[in-house]
Amino acid sequence: MEITGAELFVKALKEESVTTLFAYPGGQAIDLFHALYGEKEIDVILPRHEQGLVHAADGYARSTGKVGVCLVTSGPGATNLVTGIATANYDSVPLVCFTGQVPTELMGTDAFQEVDIVSITRSISKFAVTVRKREDLAETIKKAFYIAKTGKPGVVVVDLPKDVQRAYGSEAYPKEITVNGYKPNTSVHWGQLERALDILNNAKKPVFLIGGGVNIAHANREMTRLAEITGVPVITTIMGKGTIPTTNNLYIGNIGIHGSYAANSAICNCDVLFSIGTRFNDRITGKTEEFAADAKIIHIDIDAASISRNIFVDVPIVADAKKAICALLRKAKPLHISEWTNKINRWKMENPIDMGKSGLTPQMIIQSINELFANAIVTTDVGQNQLWTTQFLNIDEHTQMLTSGGLGTMGYGLPAAIGAKLGNPHKEVIVISGDGGIQMNIQEMATAIVYELPIIICILNNGYLGNVRQWQEMFYDRHYSSTCMCRRRSCGTGCNTPNPCCPEYTPDFIALAESYGAKGVRVTKAEDIKTALLRAKQNTKTPTVIEFIIDRERNVMPIVPPGNPLNHMILQSEESSK
């Protein structure tokens, strides 16, 4: 029996166990939507913007462990995916993004809504391809899902010309596939692991540095066991947070330019750095020449290209994080390093990350979330809100954090929460966003309303693009250039501090939330935090927006100034040291 390419597309989604499709229609994808009409096995979700759509698919994928799937039309529909594709690919999120395309005979003629999306996305995806023949369609889709979810996960873009969608051909869909030149590593080199274990067992001051690869591999329990058996302290990147429970005594904190004093100090003073699943990017290393300068470095990563790219390592191991950790567990043994762990614990006690008791602080808000939500998914936007969340949010096997780590994409938090809630309807989902980031995809409030998703949206409103403003304060002579969100044309030419004459904030987030049909509440005092969160928790029909009015010049501390090694930390900002 012959069927159209569009009908085969729907069959392929079913064969790949796709039950949720994030999709926005258009002329060059209309045949695909026609084939989806009345389909009961696939829930087609219509967000309000393609960027919101791809972030929602990303949040769905991260929170469920499944492949997220997108469908958009050609031209602007496809280009609106670009930021979300890069966001997901940087963080190794498995997505398959289908884009409509003009008929093959019109490709290259500057036809209406024609763009070469494959060329545009090739450098920011794992694989991108245009299907030019109907007979290649089934194999290409099968290949797309296989590549997206195997090895180091990532984004695959499949461009579907309109004539391929309409053409008739076989209904067969392959059960398995082999991709020439693509062979993900599935083994563990035991000889290298034994070298690593020998170095670790002889260490006096070892640390584990854990990145997002361990979360992606779902090796959290195994990593916790490895840490507890060996007694080696654990430091994480932002993306690695949660690989062991943050309440575990062996967890030290995050590393990097906003890492904790204890974590950064431990990296600078360790003699063995055992890293798993991290790229050693500039946000965590500081000045690379002085990063773990006296340590032997072991690096396990599924991506061979990530090893010794930024930091030279002594023992490279290309392997899946979970398989490597399980292999290590077979021969791991306790280390006698109490003097070292006691020193790290003293660093933690003497220099905790603490915003103090005065005013309505992000720390109070996030700690209240810790107390009131024991089984939640927390998404963040990017900026100060993200950094505070990664500092204070408790994560264990019941609580998950989704954030844009590699690309740092503002506008991620709200649509990612929508995808997470659709994939996890029985879990509470909370967005932590800034007043700048929330406005980048605020239209997705309508998506949350129409799909009846009771997500809780916490807006930390300081009236600034806070992270850039903090850098302007600390390193650019307080020249607040284009970071004040209250600024009007009638304001003066220079801005370097808020004052009582500043204009009112636009928009009124509570009125805006209510105009969408959501609930809204504004919090200005610390004693009202828990009341507002409990009220939101009880609203199970619609989203709730909680606007927290925080200090306008509150900073994320500690901070490592640009170009400095990790042990050159500024621990307190001026206002907290007075």
Helix content: 25-40%
What is the global morphology?
Answer: globular
Total DSSP helices: 23
Computed Rg: 25 Å
Largest sheet: 6 strands, parallel
Uncertain segments are none
Number of strands: 20
Distance between the termini: 78 Å
| Order of strands across the main sheet | 3-2-4-5-7-6
Structural class: alpha/beta
- Oligomeric assembly: single chain
Query: What fraction of residues sit in β-strands?
Result: 15-25%
Mean pLDDT: 95
Task: Give an account of the 3D structure.
With 578 residues, the protein is of the alpha/beta class. Helices cover 35% and strands 16% of the residues. The protein contains 23 helices and 20 strands. A 6-stranded parallel sheet has the order 3-2-4-5-7-6, with helices on both faces. It has a 6-stranded parallel sheet with strand order 11-10-9-12-13-14, with helices on both faces. Helix 13 (282-285) links the parallel strand 12 and strand 13 (296-301). Helix 1 runs parallel beside helix 7 (137-149) and helix 11 (220-230) runs parallel beside helix 14. The radius of gyration is 25 Å and the shape is globular. The termini are far apart. The model has no long low-confidence stretch (mean pLDDT 95).
